[in-house]
Amino acid sequence: MGLVVQKYGGSSVADAEGIKRVAKRIVEAKKNGHQVVVVVSAMGDTTDELIDLAEQVSPMPAGREFDMLLTAGERISMALLAMAIKNLGHEAQSFTGSQAGVITDSVHNKARIIDVTPGRIRVALDEGNIAIVAGFQGVSQDKKDITTLGRGGSDTTAVALAAALDAEVCEIYTDVDGVFTADPRVVKKAKKIDWISFEDMLELAASGSKVLLHRCVEYARRYNIPIHVRSSFSGLQGTWVSNEPTGDKVEQAIISGVAHDTSEAKITVVGVPDKPGEAAAIFRAVADAEINIDMIVQNVSAASTGLTDISFTLPKAEGRKAIDALEKAKGSIGFDSLRYDDQIGKISLVGAGMKTNPGVTADFFRALSDAGVNIELISTSEIRISVVTRADDVNEAVRAVHSAFGLDSDSDEAVVYGGTGR
Ligand code: ADP
Ligand code: ASP
Ligand code: MG
Questions:
Q1: Closest-lying ligand to the alpha carbon of 137?
Q2: What's the predicted TM-score (pTM) here?
Q3: Start and end of every ACT domain (predicted)?
Protein backbone atom coordinates (compact mmCIF):
# COMPACT_ATOMS: atom_id res chain seq x y z
CA MET A 1 0.00 0.00 0.00
CA GLY A 2 1.41 3.35 -0.99
CA LEU A 3 1.02 6.91 -0.02
CA VAL A 4 -2.21 8.80 -0.64
CA VAL A 5 -2.89 12.51 -0.45
CA GLN A 6 -6.46 13.41 0.52
CA LYS A 7 -7.76 16.97 0.28
CA TYR A 8 -10.90 18.04 2.13
CA GLY A 9 -12.61 21.25 1.04
CA GLY A 10 -14.24 23.80 3.33
CA SER A 11 -17.72 22.32 2.99
CA SER A 12 -16.44 18.93 4.21
CA VAL A 13 -15.10 20.45 7.44
CA ALA A 14 -17.73 23.15 7.94
CA ASP A 15 -18.35 22.37 11.63
CA ALA A 16 -17.20 20.11 14.48
CA GLU A 17 -19.41 17.27 13.23
CA GLY A 18 -17.87 17.57 9.77
CA ILE A 19 -14.35 17.47 11.21
CA LYS A 20 -15.16 14.32 13.19
CA ARG A 21 -16.73 12.68 10.13
CA VAL A 22 -13.69 13.46 8.00
CA ALA A 23 -11.33 12.25 10.77
CA LYS A 24 -13.02 8.83 10.68
CA ARG A 25 -12.57 8.64 6.94
CA ILE A 26 -8.89 9.49 7.19
CA VAL A 27 -8.37 6.86 9.90
CA GLU A 28 -10.02 4.26 7.61
CA ALA A 29 -7.43 4.98 4.90
CA LYS A 30 -4.65 4.63 7.45
CA LYS A 31 -6.12 1.34 8.76
CA ASN A 32 -6.18 0.06 5.16
CA GLY A 33 -2.41 0.30 5.24
CA HIS A 34 -1.80 3.62 3.47
CA GLN A 35 0.51 6.40 4.50
CA VAL A 36 -1.86 9.35 4.60
CA VAL A 37 -1.18 13.04 3.97
CA VAL A 38 -4.21 15.27 4.35
CA VAL A 39 -4.58 18.76 2.93
CA VAL A 40 -7.38 20.74 4.53
CA SER A 41 -9.19 23.97 3.65
CA ALA A 42 -10.60 26.54 6.05
CA MET A 43 -13.93 25.61 7.69
CA GLY A 44 -17.03 26.45 5.64
CA ASP A 45 -17.03 30.06 4.45
CA THR A 46 -14.26 31.18 6.84
CA THR A 47 -12.09 32.60 4.06
CA ASP A 48 -14.95 34.76 2.74
CA GLU A 49 -15.68 35.96 6.26
CA LEU A 50 -12.03 36.92 6.79
CA ILE A 51 -12.05 38.83 3.48
CA ASP A 52 -15.22 40.70 4.53
CA LEU A 53 -13.56 41.57 7.82
CA ALA A 54 -10.42 42.88 6.10
CA GLU A 55 -12.53 45.06 3.80
CA GLN A 56 -14.25 46.60 6.80
CA VAL A 57 -10.96 47.89 8.16
CA SER A 58 -9.31 48.81 4.86
CA PRO A 59 -10.62 49.10 1.29
CA MET A 60 -7.33 47.87 -0.19
CA PRO A 61 -5.51 45.77 2.39
CA ALA A 62 -1.79 45.24 1.82
CA GLY A 63 -1.05 41.86 0.25
CA ARG A 64 1.32 40.68 2.95
CA GLU A 65 -1.10 41.27 5.81
CA PHE A 66 -4.06 40.00 3.80
CA ASP A 67 -2.27 36.69 3.22
CA MET A 68 -1.29 36.45 6.86
CA LEU A 69 -4.95 36.90 7.79
CA LEU A 70 -6.38 34.40 5.28
CA THR A 71 -3.94 31.62 6.17
CA ALA A 72 -5.35 31.69 9.71
CA GLY A 73 -8.47 29.90 8.41
CA GLU A 74 -6.53 26.78 7.43
CA ARG A 75 -4.58 26.81 10.69
CA ILE A 76 -7.81 26.42 12.61
CA SER A 77 -9.05 23.46 10.58
CA MET A 78 -5.70 21.63 10.48
CA ALA A 79 -5.26 21.74 14.25
CA LEU A 80 -8.86 20.68 14.93
CA LEU A 81 -8.57 17.81 12.46
CA ALA A 82 -5.36 16.56 14.07
CA MET A 83 -7.09 16.69 17.48
CA ALA A 84 -10.09 14.75 16.16
CA ILE A 85 -7.82 12.04 14.72
CA LYS A 86 -5.87 11.71 17.97
CA ASN A 87 -9.19 11.36 19.75
CA LEU A 88 -9.83 8.28 17.61
CA GLY A 89 -6.61 6.76 18.91
CA HIS A 90 -4.32 7.53 15.95
CA GLU A 91 -1.27 9.76 15.70
CA ALA A 92 -1.53 12.95 13.68
CA GLN A 93 0.52 16.13 13.34
CA SER A 94 -0.52 19.35 11.65
CA PHE A 95 1.78 21.59 9.58
CA THR A 96 1.43 25.03 8.06
CA GLY A 97 2.23 25.34 4.36
CA SER A 98 5.60 26.80 5.27
CA GLN A 99 6.43 23.92 7.64
CA ALA A 100 5.37 21.44 4.96
CA GLY A 101 7.91 22.98 2.55
CA VAL A 102 5.54 24.71 0.13
CA ILE A 103 7.84 27.36 -1.38
CA THR A 104 6.27 30.04 -3.59
CA ASP A 105 7.11 33.20 -5.48
CA SER A 106 6.28 36.44 -3.68
CA VAL A 107 3.11 37.53 -5.53
CA HIS A 108 0.69 37.93 -2.63
CA ASN A 109 -2.89 36.64 -3.03
CA LYS A 110 -1.98 34.52 -6.07
CA ALA A 111 1.46 33.08 -5.42
CA ARG A 112 2.78 30.22 -7.55
CA ILE A 113 4.42 27.17 -6.06
CA ILE A 114 8.04 26.98 -7.23
CA ASP A 115 9.28 24.13 -5.07
CA VAL A 116 8.04 21.63 -2.50
CA THR A 117 10.49 20.28 0.10
CA PRO A 118 8.38 18.05 2.33
CA GLY A 119 11.17 16.78 4.62
CA ARG A 120 9.16 17.25 7.80
CA ILE A 121 6.16 15.49 6.29
CA ARG A 122 8.32 12.47 5.40
CA VAL A 123 9.65 12.30 8.94
CA ALA A 124 6.15 12.57 10.41
CA LEU A 125 4.92 9.76 8.14
CA ASP A 126 7.92 7.53 8.90
CA GLU A 127 7.16 7.95 12.60
CA GLY A 128 3.67 6.58 11.96
CA ASN A 129 1.75 9.84 11.93
CA ILE A 130 -1.01 11.02 9.68
CA ALA A 131 0.27 14.38 8.37
CA ILE A 132 -2.23 17.23 8.12
CA VAL A 133 -1.19 20.18 5.97
CA ALA A 134 -2.85 23.58 5.75
CA GLY A 135 -3.96 24.14 2.16
CA PHE A 136 -3.73 27.28 0.02
CA GLN A 137 -0.58 28.69 1.63
CA GLY A 138 3.17 28.72 1.36
CA VAL A 139 6.21 30.83 2.11
CA SER A 140 8.00 33.04 -0.40
CA GLN A 141 11.48 31.96 -1.41
CA ASP A 142 13.10 35.39 -1.29
CA LYS A 143 11.44 37.31 1.56
CA LYS A 144 10.21 34.33 3.63
CA ASP A 145 6.78 35.97 3.84
CA ILE A 146 3.59 33.96 4.16
CA THR A 147 1.72 33.76 0.83
CA THR A 148 -1.59 32.40 -0.43
CA LEU A 149 -2.16 30.61 -3.72
CA GLY A 150 -5.43 32.29 -4.76
CA ARG A 151 -9.00 31.21 -4.04
CA GLY A 152 -9.51 27.46 -4.13
CA GLY A 153 -5.73 27.00 -3.84
CA SER A 154 -5.88 23.99 -1.50
CA ASP A 155 -6.48 21.83 -4.57
CA THR A 156 -3.07 22.93 -5.85
CA THR A 157 -1.38 22.27 -2.49
CA ALA A 158 -2.74 18.72 -2.58
CA VAL A 159 -1.48 17.93 -6.08
CA ALA A 160 1.89 19.60 -5.44
CA LEU A 161 2.41 17.49 -2.32
CA ALA A 162 1.24 14.37 -4.15
CA ALA A 163 3.87 15.04 -6.83
CA ALA A 164 6.66 15.80 -4.33
CA LEU A 165 5.86 12.71 -2.24
CA ASP A 166 5.33 10.47 -5.27
CA ALA A 167 1.79 9.59 -4.12
CA GLU A 168 -0.30 6.87 -5.77
CA VAL A 169 -3.25 9.18 -6.10
CA CYS A 170 -4.50 12.58 -5.05
CA GLU A 171 -8.06 12.36 -3.74
CA ILE A 172 -10.06 15.61 -3.72
CA TYR A 173 -13.02 15.32 -1.35
CA THR A 174 -15.82 17.81 -1.82
CA ASP A 175 -19.58 18.31 -1.44
CA VAL A 176 -20.68 16.63 -4.71
CA ASP A 177 -20.04 13.09 -6.01
CA GLY A 178 -17.45 14.10 -8.59
CA VAL A 179 -17.12 16.20 -11.70
CA PHE A 180 -20.49 16.56 -13.43
CA THR A 181 -21.44 17.59 -16.96
CA ALA A 182 -22.47 20.96 -15.43
CA ASP A 183 -22.60 22.50 -11.97
CA PRO A 184 -25.17 20.37 -10.10
CA ARG A 185 -26.32 23.49 -8.24
CA VAL A 186 -27.57 24.86 -11.57
CA VAL A 187 -28.43 21.74 -13.57
CA LYS A 188 -30.30 19.14 -11.51
CA LYS A 189 -30.02 16.70 -14.42
CA ALA A 190 -26.23 16.96 -14.65
CA LYS A 191 -24.47 13.59 -15.01
CA LYS A 192 -21.44 12.42 -13.05
CA ILE A 193 -18.45 11.84 -15.32
CA ASP A 194 -16.56 8.59 -14.56
CA TRP A 195 -13.34 9.61 -16.29
CA ILE A 196 -12.19 12.85 -17.89
CA SER A 197 -8.87 13.70 -19.54
CA PHE A 198 -6.56 16.33 -18.08
CA GLU A 199 -7.07 18.29 -21.28
CA ASP A 200 -10.86 18.60 -20.98
CA MET A 201 -10.73 19.09 -17.20
CA LEU A 202 -8.24 21.90 -17.68
CA GLU A 203 -10.64 23.74 -19.99
CA LEU A 204 -13.64 23.14 -17.69
CA ALA A 205 -11.69 24.42 -14.69
CA ALA A 206 -10.38 27.45 -16.59
CA SER A 207 -13.96 28.20 -17.68
CA GLY A 208 -15.33 28.34 -14.14
CA SER A 209 -16.06 24.75 -12.97
CA LYS A 210 -14.68 25.43 -9.53
CA VAL A 211 -14.88 21.77 -8.45
CA LEU A 212 -11.16 21.72 -9.38
CA LEU A 213 -8.89 24.69 -9.66
CA HIS A 214 -7.22 24.97 -13.04
CA ARG A 215 -3.72 25.43 -11.63
CA CYS A 216 -4.17 22.19 -9.76
CA VAL A 217 -5.10 20.35 -12.98
CA GLU A 218 -2.15 21.96 -14.77
CA TYR A 219 0.17 20.70 -12.05
CA ALA A 220 -1.37 17.21 -12.10
CA ARG A 221 -0.94 16.99 -15.85
CA ARG A 222 2.67 18.14 -15.72
CA TYR A 223 3.60 15.53 -13.09
CA ASN A 224 1.09 12.92 -14.29
CA ILE A 225 -0.69 12.60 -10.93
CA PRO A 226 -4.13 10.96 -11.26
CA ILE A 227 -6.84 12.87 -9.37
CA HIS A 228 -9.91 11.23 -7.91
CA VAL A 229 -12.65 13.80 -7.21
CA ARG A 230 -15.29 12.43 -4.84
CA SER A 231 -17.67 13.26 -2.05
CA SER A 232 -16.65 13.19 1.60
CA PHE A 233 -20.34 12.67 2.42
CA SER A 234 -20.89 9.41 0.46
CA GLY A 235 -18.91 6.23 -0.23
CA LEU A 236 -19.42 6.45 -3.99
CA GLN A 237 -16.68 6.29 -6.61
CA GLY A 238 -16.16 9.75 -8.02
CA THR A 239 -14.50 11.07 -11.17
CA TRP A 240 -11.00 10.07 -12.28
CA VAL A 241 -8.98 12.79 -13.95
CA SER A 242 -5.92 11.40 -15.73
CA ASN A 243 -4.12 10.96 -19.02
CA GLU A 244 -5.63 7.59 -19.87
CA PRO A 245 -8.99 6.06 -18.90
CA THR A 246 -8.68 4.06 -15.68
CA GLY A 247 -10.60 1.00 -14.51
CA ASP A 248 -13.54 -0.07 -16.66
CA LYS A 249 -13.29 1.02 -20.25
CA VAL A 250 -14.70 4.49 -20.53
CA GLU A 251 -14.72 6.37 -23.73
CA GLN A 252 -13.92 10.01 -24.11
CA ALA A 253 -17.18 11.88 -24.67
CA ILE A 254 -17.47 14.25 -27.63
CA ILE A 255 -18.68 16.95 -25.25
CA SER A 256 -17.45 16.74 -21.65
CA GLY A 257 -19.61 19.44 -20.17
CA VAL A 258 -20.86 22.99 -19.79
CA ALA A 259 -19.12 25.44 -17.47
CA HIS A 260 -20.25 28.85 -16.31
CA ASP A 261 -18.58 31.74 -14.59
CA THR A 262 -20.06 34.89 -13.10
CA SER A 263 -16.86 36.11 -11.49
CA GLU A 264 -15.76 38.28 -14.41
CA ALA A 265 -16.49 41.84 -15.49
CA LYS A 266 -16.20 43.60 -18.84
CA ILE A 267 -14.31 46.82 -19.55
CA THR A 268 -14.94 48.68 -22.79
CA VAL A 269 -12.39 51.23 -23.94
CA VAL A 270 -14.50 53.60 -26.04
CA GLY A 271 -13.20 55.69 -28.94
CA VAL A 272 -9.75 54.24 -29.54
CA PRO A 273 -7.94 55.67 -32.63
CA ASP A 274 -7.95 52.95 -35.32
CA LYS A 275 -4.19 52.72 -35.87
CA PRO A 276 -1.37 50.26 -35.13
CA GLY A 277 -0.05 50.15 -31.56
CA GLU A 278 -3.25 51.20 -29.77
CA ALA A 279 -4.28 47.71 -28.62
CA ALA A 280 -0.71 47.03 -27.57
CA ALA A 281 -0.69 50.18 -25.41
CA ILE A 282 -4.01 49.33 -23.76
CA PHE A 283 -3.03 45.77 -22.88
CA ARG A 284 0.48 46.84 -21.80
CA ALA A 285 -1.11 49.15 -19.22
CA VAL A 286 -3.33 46.31 -17.96
CA ALA A 287 -0.50 43.77 -17.91
CA ASP A 288 1.82 46.14 -16.03
CA ALA A 289 -0.82 46.20 -13.29
CA GLU A 290 -0.39 42.35 -13.13
CA ILE A 291 -3.94 41.71 -14.34
CA ASN A 292 -4.81 38.65 -16.39
CA ILE A 293 -7.43 39.24 -19.03
CA ASP A 294 -9.69 36.66 -20.61
CA MET A 295 -11.71 37.50 -23.74
CA ILE A 296 -11.17 40.42 -26.14
CA VAL A 297 -13.33 41.92 -28.88
CA GLN A 298 -12.79 44.97 -31.09
CA ASN A 299 -15.72 46.77 -32.76
CA VAL A 300 -16.20 49.78 -34.99
CA SER A 301 -17.19 52.49 -32.55
CA ALA A 302 -20.89 53.25 -32.52
CA ALA A 303 -20.18 56.81 -31.48
CA SER A 304 -17.83 58.14 -34.17
CA THR A 305 -15.85 57.13 -37.25
CA GLY A 306 -12.14 56.42 -37.49
CA LEU A 307 -12.37 55.09 -33.96
CA THR A 308 -12.92 51.64 -32.50
CA ASP A 309 -14.15 50.23 -29.20
CA ILE A 310 -12.13 47.50 -27.50
CA SER A 311 -13.85 45.32 -24.89
CA PHE A 312 -12.21 42.73 -22.67
CA THR A 313 -13.14 40.61 -19.67
CA LEU A 314 -11.18 40.17 -16.45
CA PRO A 315 -11.80 38.96 -12.88
CA LYS A 316 -14.22 41.33 -11.08
CA ALA A 317 -11.76 41.44 -8.20
CA GLU A 318 -9.24 43.18 -10.51
CA GLY A 319 -11.77 45.66 -11.98
CA ARG A 320 -10.82 48.67 -9.87
CA LYS A 321 -7.10 48.16 -10.48
CA ALA A 322 -7.59 47.88 -14.26
CA ILE A 323 -9.73 51.04 -14.46
CA ASP A 324 -7.13 52.96 -12.43
CA ALA A 325 -4.29 51.72 -14.65
CA LEU A 326 -6.13 52.68 -17.86
CA GLU A 327 -7.16 56.10 -16.52
CA LYS A 328 -3.52 56.77 -15.71
CA ALA A 329 -2.45 55.84 -19.25
CA LYS A 330 -5.34 57.70 -20.93
CA GLY A 331 -3.19 60.62 -22.06
CA SER A 332 -0.62 58.46 -23.81
CA ILE A 333 -3.07 55.93 -25.29
CA GLY A 334 -5.73 58.43 -26.34
CA PHE A 335 -9.28 57.10 -25.97
CA ASP A 336 -12.59 58.79 -25.13
CA SER A 337 -13.87 56.96 -22.08
CA LEU A 338 -14.12 53.68 -20.16
CA ARG A 339 -17.23 51.61 -19.46
CA TYR A 340 -17.35 49.02 -16.66
CA ASP A 341 -19.95 46.26 -16.59
CA ASP A 342 -19.99 43.61 -13.86
CA GLN A 343 -23.37 42.13 -14.74
CA ILE A 344 -22.00 39.62 -17.22
CA GLY A 345 -21.66 35.84 -17.22
CA LYS A 346 -19.73 33.37 -19.33
CA ILE A 347 -20.97 30.01 -20.62
CA SER A 348 -18.52 27.52 -22.11
CA LEU A 349 -19.00 24.23 -23.88
CA VAL A 350 -15.97 21.90 -23.56
CA GLY A 351 -15.01 18.70 -25.31
CA ALA A 352 -12.08 17.34 -27.33
CA GLY A 353 -14.61 15.86 -29.78
CA MET A 354 -15.28 19.37 -31.07
CA LYS A 355 -12.10 19.19 -33.14
CA THR A 356 -13.60 16.52 -35.38
CA ASN A 357 -17.35 17.20 -35.19
CA PRO A 358 -18.49 20.08 -37.36
CA GLY A 359 -21.65 21.86 -36.34
CA VAL A 360 -20.99 22.03 -32.60
CA THR A 361 -20.69 25.83 -32.71
CA ALA A 362 -23.86 26.20 -34.76
CA ASP A 363 -25.80 23.94 -32.35
CA PHE A 364 -24.44 25.90 -29.38
CA PHE A 365 -25.59 29.25 -30.80
CA ARG A 366 -28.97 27.73 -31.81
CA ALA A 367 -29.54 26.49 -28.23
CA LEU A 368 -28.79 29.96 -26.86
CA SER A 369 -31.03 31.69 -29.34
CA ASP A 370 -33.90 29.23 -28.68
CA ALA A 371 -33.55 30.14 -25.00
CA GLY A 372 -33.73 33.84 -25.92
CA VAL A 373 -30.18 34.53 -24.74
CA ASN A 374 -28.23 37.33 -26.42
CA ILE A 375 -24.49 36.83 -27.08
CA GLU A 376 -22.12 39.75 -26.36
CA LEU A 377 -18.64 38.25 -26.82
CA ILE A 378 -17.35 35.00 -28.29
CA SER A 379 -14.06 33.17 -27.92
CA THR A 380 -12.92 29.69 -28.90
CA SER A 381 -10.09 27.25 -28.49
CA GLU A 382 -9.71 23.91 -30.27
CA ILE A 383 -11.81 22.16 -27.64
CA ARG A 384 -13.92 24.98 -26.15
CA ILE A 385 -16.38 27.61 -27.20
CA SER A 386 -17.34 30.41 -24.80
CA VAL A 387 -19.82 33.27 -24.92
CA VAL A 388 -20.50 36.23 -22.66
CA THR A 389 -24.14 37.04 -21.87
CA ARG A 390 -26.06 39.03 -19.28
CA ALA A 391 -25.47 37.56 -15.78
CA ASP A 392 -29.23 37.06 -15.36
CA ASP A 393 -29.34 34.74 -18.37
CA VAL A 394 -26.53 32.42 -17.30
CA ASN A 395 -28.43 29.68 -15.43
CA GLU A 396 -31.08 29.42 -18.11
CA ALA A 397 -28.44 29.34 -20.82
CA VAL A 398 -26.45 26.58 -19.10
CA ARG A 399 -29.57 24.40 -18.77
CA ALA A 400 -30.56 25.02 -22.40
CA VAL A 401 -27.11 24.11 -23.75
CA HIS A 402 -26.86 21.07 -21.47
CA SER A 403 -30.19 19.75 -22.82
CA ALA A 404 -29.42 20.62 -26.43
CA PHE A 405 -26.25 18.51 -26.38
CA GLY A 406 -28.06 15.51 -24.90
CA LEU A 407 -26.20 15.72 -21.60
CA ASP A 408 -29.30 15.54 -19.34
CA SER A 409 -29.41 12.41 -17.20
CA ASP A 410 -32.62 10.42 -17.21
CA SER A 411 -32.07 8.81 -13.83
CA ASP A 412 -30.90 10.25 -10.53
CA GLU A 413 -30.78 13.93 -9.85
CA ALA A 414 -27.30 15.20 -8.95
CA VAL A 415 -26.87 15.49 -5.18
CA VAL A 416 -25.29 18.50 -3.47
CA TYR A 417 -24.43 17.41 0.08
CA GLY A 418 -23.27 20.64 1.65
CA GLY A 419 -21.68 24.00 1.15
CA THR A 420 -23.36 27.29 0.49
CA GLY A 421 -22.14 27.69 -3.09
CA ARG A 422 -20.48 30.94 -2.06
P1 ADP B 1 -14.62 22.66 -1.79
O2 ADP B 1 -15.06 23.48 -0.62
O3 ADP B 1 -14.71 21.19 -1.51
O4 ADP B 1 -13.30 23.08 -2.37
P5 ADP B 1 -15.87 24.00 -4.02
O6 ADP B 1 -17.07 24.82 -3.65
O7 ADP B 1 -14.61 24.69 -4.32
O8 ADP B 1 -15.72 22.89 -2.90
O9 ADP B 1 -16.22 23.07 -5.28
C10 ADP B 1 -17.35 22.21 -5.27
C11 ADP B 1 -18.49 22.89 -5.99
O12 ADP B 1 -18.14 23.07 -7.35
C13 ADP B 1 -19.78 22.10 -6.04
O14 ADP B 1 -20.56 22.27 -4.89
C15 ADP B 1 -20.44 22.67 -7.28
O16 ADP B 1 -21.44 23.63 -6.96
C17 ADP B 1 -19.33 23.37 -8.06
N18 ADP B 1 -19.20 22.93 -9.44
C19 ADP B 1 -19.11 23.75 -10.52
N20 ADP B 1 -19.03 23.06 -11.65
C21 ADP B 1 -19.06 21.75 -11.31
C22 ADP B 1 -19.01 20.54 -12.07
N23 ADP B 1 -18.90 20.54 -13.40
N24 ADP B 1 -19.08 19.37 -11.39
C25 ADP B 1 -19.17 19.36 -10.05
N26 ADP B 1 -19.24 20.46 -9.28
C27 ADP B 1 -19.17 21.66 -9.90
N1 ASP C 1 -9.87 28.46 1.94
C2 ASP C 1 -9.43 28.92 0.64
C3 ASP C 1 -10.60 29.44 -0.16
O4 ASP C 1 -11.72 29.45 0.32
C5 ASP C 1 -8.68 27.88 -0.13
C6 ASP C 1 -9.46 26.66 -0.50
O7 ASP C 1 -10.51 26.39 0.07
O8 ASP C 1 -9.00 25.94 -1.39
O9 ASP C 1 -10.41 29.87 -1.28
MG1 MG D 1 -12.55 24.25 -4.09
A1: 2
A2: 0.93
A3: 267-343, 349-422
